[in-house]
Amino acid sequence: MALKLERFVSPGKGDGLRAKQRVKAGDLLYTAEPLACCVSNRCRNGVCHSCFSRRETLLRCSQCKVARYCNVTCQKQGWSAHKKECKYLVSLHPRIPTDSVRLAARIIFGLLCPSQNTAELYSLEEHMSHLCDMSEEKMEGLSHLSSVLQLYIKQEQHEIAQKTPPIDPVSLLAKVTCNCFTISDAELQEIGVGLYPSMSLLNHDCRPNCVMLFQGKTLQLRAIRAIQPAEELTISYIGVLLPTRERQTQLLDQYHFTCQCQRCITAELDPLMLCGVEEAWTPLKEALPRLENMQTNGRILYKRINWEELLLECSTLLTPVDGAVPDSNVYRLRVTDLALDSCINLAQWETALAYGVQTLESYRQYYPDPHPAHAIQLMRVAKLQHFLGHLEEAQHTLRQAYDIMKITHGNKHSLTSDLIRKLDECRAEMDGN
């Protein structure tokens, strides 16, 4: 099938991708398999290391005791990628290298034993490392990771030294840090990291015209609005629920550029994001890193007490700001989202629904174009409405979710199929009543 995109030089940005033809909202522009990928350490006990599906019960690799698989079939399919890694994980036991080190090692294993992969638009050698842009502190961190990487795969050092072009561990790790993608599940939760060389060409915009989603470890790039021939294709490298200064700081720190997109130049959403009394919302802003870490621990440890503690913290922060901080304030919105997640995990359905409904208008304002995060939020609320017997509201919310999801996910995506089934259930129950 002919490519709908092509590589070009984007003015002021360097290499990029642009449309070769007129593109409609919802069009699938590109599908890619990773050059290399691995399950994130934080998810390693609950995600299959071959197909990247979440499972409550997984088979564990009998040798390294780290990799886990749905079944024997997945284990066999994943063996070629895991074979070399396995013996090195055994040698380091009980230590486990960071995600970036494991991903870099898998890239090296692939370079030493190249396969007949589909031609990429962007080679690994062309990837930017941004070493010259990094602070001394970051360079020290990379140097440490490089030492760990070389210790991890020390038996490959002879082959690495003979490789042409030579493999520089520091440069490779820098390229991984700047160019790898977070692989997410249907709920947009992190499950792994991967390098997709052609997709590394995509430049950033805080209001992009494309989104990336994953089916397992397969990446899909879709247009979320109409795109003209020769128009640049963009994605957002970071979450958009941040005011301009925080977005720009994060992009400069991680990707080494100052964003000059229209949303950043005009700071058009900042008055909405930062509305309310600053003294009232500042404690919410300051608490978010700690609260999000508690959420991560809740997902990893699967313990009720973690979610109870998080919900208590969120409700304690939210109660005093009523009247002083509107629902649309971005820090209030994010804390409310954490409270919603806690309630769902604690089976407090009525409270969860109240929190969820409270977020929907803000999601509509912050995601004016179709976006997976908006669709998934609507679907979460709709499921709660359906479970609690609010059938008309559930049907309305599911339809809103579908209108977005048919563009962001496409009708063949597993999550879209789940939504359609839920909509059919809702209709059947309403007809039965």
Automatic annotation (TrEMBL):
Name of the protein this chain belongs to: Uncharacterized protein
Taxonomy, superkingdom: Eukaryota
